[in-house]
Amino acid sequence: MIGQTLSHYRILEKIGAGGMGVVYRAHDERLDRDVALKVLPPGTLADEAARKRFRKEALTLSRLNHPNIETVHDFDTQEGVDFLVMEHIVGVTLDKKLAGGGLPEKEISRLGVQLAEGLAAAHQQGIVHRDLKPSNLLITEDGRLKILDFGIAKLLHPISETAATASLTEAQQPVAGTLPYMPPEQLLGEKVDVRSDIWSAGAVLYEMAAGRQAFREQVTAKLIDAILHQVPAPPRSVNAKASPELERIILKCLEKDPEDRYQSARELSVDLRRVGAPSTISRVSRQSALAQRWPLTASAALVAVLAVLLGFNVGGWRSQLLRGAGVGRIESLAVLPLQNLSGDPGQEYFADGMTEELTAEVAQLSTLRVISRTSVMQYKAGKKPLPQIARELNVDAVVEGSVQRSGDRVRIIAQLIYAPTDRHLWARTYERDLHDVLALQDEVAQAIAREVGGRLNPQQQVHVAAARRVNPEAYESYLRGRSYLSSGTISDLQKSIDYFNQAIKLDPDYAPSYAALAGAYYFLGFFNVLSPNVAFGKMKEAALRALERDDTVSGGHDALGLVKLHYEWDWDGAEKEFKRALELNPNDADTRHDYAHFLMAMGRLDESVAESNRAVELDPVDSDLAACLCWHRYAARQYPEAIVQALKTIQLEPEEDWTHIILGWNYEQVSKFDEAIQEFQTALKLSGGGEFALAALGHAFAASGRKQQAHEVLAKLKEQSQHGYVSAFDMAIIYTGLGDKEKAFQWLQKAVEERSSFLIYSRWEPRLDPLRSDPRFPAVLHRIGLPT
Q: Fold match between 5-88 and 92-276?
């Protein structure tokens, strides 16, 4: 076929062949690039139905986008020839690299981690390889491992109950194909899942470590029997240089029962990474063993002292030495989502909650910029390499690891990695009873502080010293509540309140449960789901109870500041609480965002934009924070800049109703009423018919002269007020747009009486401009306590 053209692919040379087809290097004439073109064996797809199924599966494969997986570009048929188009990669396959024997352990760890991370990314999408072997693993010229033919085995040879029979019909034949890498369940025709790929990965790792296959029988029947029933020789019996830890990892992968293997590729990745970066404890222990084996001469004593200094970073020695070894100063950090190694998908909330709590602990380091949880959760699937993640988050280092809960025991494995070079600086395992989970989090945070040369602020040092035990059931309810609070939907906010109340009932002295409960009521009050006196009343009660139990809980001070801002109109008290919260946790993006709201209400708009920018720096992918930055520009009447920024934010997160509302407000001020109405209608649909978006739409109708439609919105809001809370401030805004000043002021007076949450922004709100020349307007500002 060399020289022929299939579709717009001109075939240049043959580069491989196997049971799944012949592979050619071809040139994509349309995109001017080389590709790998796999021509499927004739008759593979018997009819159009099979071809349609294959095309659908190939589309699924094309969505796999990971640096350790060969990308599928296209599938097509021409003149009876079916072919797949894939990424063309220059390099050498692992089987050729292993022809000269095994690999050094450091390289096994490096390549093994990449193999596991590629598998993890595919498994996250529900795709199992089914044919993992050294010839399907390619090492690029720059040392990166690429998994080839992902999922193709399933497309060409679906697993069935006859698989074992098909293998055994050739029982006396010499071994061929991929049998040595086939897990027991696949040989028996049983269900194949992600753990089957773990077994095959173990077989590959064994060969990398030992320089030979785990099962070496040369007759098919004997090989099948060995895979099903025999334990492979320990890798260290073949290669004495292999470490006990690597041997343990490999043999765990090769367990006969899938339940006894690693339950996820991510779990395997964590252990392989630790092989390449021994823990601090391991290094100190080895030095201690040396000191006991030989007389403690002056040199040996020096070695032992240096080991302790490095292990515990006394005086920042390790940080200084590492900087001398090509590790720059660490001034910013992100805690990546901890992997759930509990073997129970229902425990994801626990792993996510532990990530959030650990981030909060580390965020209290006074010398570091720590990225907020919202931004790091996008990397939960683990598809991107660490240096790329660090660039996107603009951080110097990352903490990654896992959490495993078994009964009332919790284990955290944490690693600190210098991101620009992907260099592992420190790794350690912590295990505690769930009663002591708070002390465990503090211990990890302190270790990170020592490692990067940072220090906990004085309040946090006191907090660490006084870390208390917690009721495990209460803490579990608290974490479940946090997971619902993070989603932001109204129904989930109600669920979060239920869980926080349950946590409080089980452990009335755990302050963070009260602070989180206050946060849930804030959103219900701010977006007019509950009336201000109900929402902010409950919010104040919860915040005060949190601070009575622990005055160092920054969330309690932030919540109290919001109450003083939106409900009590105590401006000095609000600023005092926000500043206290930031003193306790300078890296809390939400607190900086809330403080920016205070500055905006006070008319300190330059300060407001600056504080909002700081919040976005701490949480760069949170669409709510980005949208609020547009809102601050709206307040400063920088409408063109706000529109550009809002459009960019919507491109990143089109389903966020708040951004569409803010964009609509800005469109109104530049007289683009049709565009504004469209944005409000989109927000109304996304919010499920929320009052907040409906009121914004009503004002746009009124301001654009569509009075009948504005009155229809007013009627709908009045009807809604019979069943729930409707903000009087929103009603005043619509009547202002209609030019009905009498009713606008009537509703403004009612808004003052009920203390509507948005009333504090009256000093600059552009939609109230038609009322400013009326002497009644300064009187309204005076009642609120705002300068006129």
A: no
What is the predicted pLDDT for the residue at 667? 96
Position 153 scores a pLDDT of: 55
* pLDDT for the residue numbered 168: 35
pLDDT value of residue 309: 40
Q: What are the phi and psi torsion angles at 168 (to 5°)?
A: -80, -15
Q: By three-state DSSP, how is residue 41 classified?
A: coil
Classify residue 718 as exposed, middle or buried by CB count within 10 Å of its CB (0-12, 13-18, 19+). Answer: exposed
H or E element, residue 269: helix 265-276
Q: How far is CA 261 from the centre of its chain?
A: 26
Give dist(CA 402, CA 268) in Å, integer: 11
H or E element at residue 748: helix 741-754
Domain parsing of the chain, residue ranges: 5-88, 92-276, 332-469
Q: Which of 447, 421, 383, 424 is nearest to 275 (CA)?
A: 424
Would you say 518 and 577 are in contact if contact means Cβ atoms under 8 Å apart?
no
The SS3 of residue 418 is strand
- The per-type count for the chain, helices as H runs and strands as E runs, is 36, 15
**pLDDT of 735-788, one tens digit each?**
999 999 999 999 999 999 999 988 999 999 999 999 999 999 999 999 999 876
The CATH code belonging to domain 5-88 is 3.30.200.20
pLDDT of residue 71: 85
Q: Which of these, 662, 701, 657, 663, lies nearest to 683 by C-alpha position?
A: 657
Ranges of the chain with pLDDT below 70: 18-20, 46, 151-177, 276-328, 342-344, 346, 365-367, 381-383, 449, 451-468, 488, 788
Domain 332-469: homologous superfamily in CATH:
ABC-type transport auxiliary lipoprotein component (3.40.50.10610)
Which DSSP string corresponds to 239-257?
Answer: -TTS-HHHHHHHHHHT-SS
Q: 426 pairs with which residues across the strands?
A: 416
How far apart, in whole angstroms, are the C-alpha atoms of residue 744 and residue 771?
Answer: 9
Distance between CA 147 and CA 139 in Å, rounded? 9
Yes or no: is domain 92-276 CATH 1.10.510.10? yes
The token pair at 664 is 């609509």
Cα(23)–Cα(5) distance, integer angstroms: 14
**Beta-strand relationship, 21-28 and 9-18:** antiparallel
Residue 122: per-residue pLDDT: 87
- 570-576: Cβ within 8 A, 24+ apart: 571/598, 571/602, 571/785, 574/598
Q: Tell me, letter by letter, the H, E, C secondary structure of 494-544.
A: HHHHHHHHHHHHHCCCCHHHHHHHHHHHHHHHHCCCCCHHHHHHHHHHHHH
State the Cα–Cα distance between residues 544 and 523, nearest whole angstrom.
Answer: 18
* Terminal C-alpha separation, the chain: 82
